[in-house]
Amino acid sequence: VNAHYEIIDASQLNLNEKGDAVNWLANKTGIKPIDIYSLPRVEISEKNESSTPHFEEESDERQSQASMLVNFVTERATLFYDQNKNVYAHDNKTQETRRLDGRQFKDWLLANFYRTMGKSPRDQSLREALSTLNGIAIHTGECQEVHIRVAKQDENYYIDLGEPGKNRAIQINSSYWKIVDKPPVLFIRPGTLLALSEPSMNGDFNSIWSLINIPDNARLLLITWLAECFRPDTPFPILELIGEQGSAKST
Fold this sequence. Notes:
alpha+beta; 4-stranded antiparallel β-sheet; elongated
């Protein structure tokens, strides 16, 4: 592009008091400046007005979907938090408890939302909904204690069976044990936690000695150690196995 620049003393242009470069160019070339007030007016139709702020429609849709997710969770779960301000959702149907920022809760929410609504939520809507649910739990929920596998309340111990879709636990005290469908304590289940076999009243504890090589005079110690492992209110004892090479200590 070839450009030509010219420096001119404005005092020699004989311009009006408010004259500018446009007036100077008009005097020099004979081309008059355009009067913008003489241009035809262009009316903006309603169609054009509604199509312009497209991003606002997307924002409203995202906020609407986030609100749907919040309502979906609060209708099906009870939100609470623990002493460390971690937030949980207690499933009102299965009585299972899931941590709000965990993978298990996200999978549960996505699967059930799609099954009910027939569509998947957007990632941004999901993040906004989780943030809102976290605030609701902290400011309106109760502070409750959660446990992994074992818990104690009053004189009873509870062992979570870890069954998917259920909340059954074994209730144990000094007089009896039984399986309860709705224990009074809350359990969470990490991804690696597996379900336990349902215990039987007709079981024989002595069957364990066919699996592990423990001398008769040490079996009571092993039984005590096993029992203490399921008591969260006492110090956990350490098991030390002593034996010669090849006696299956590692096994």
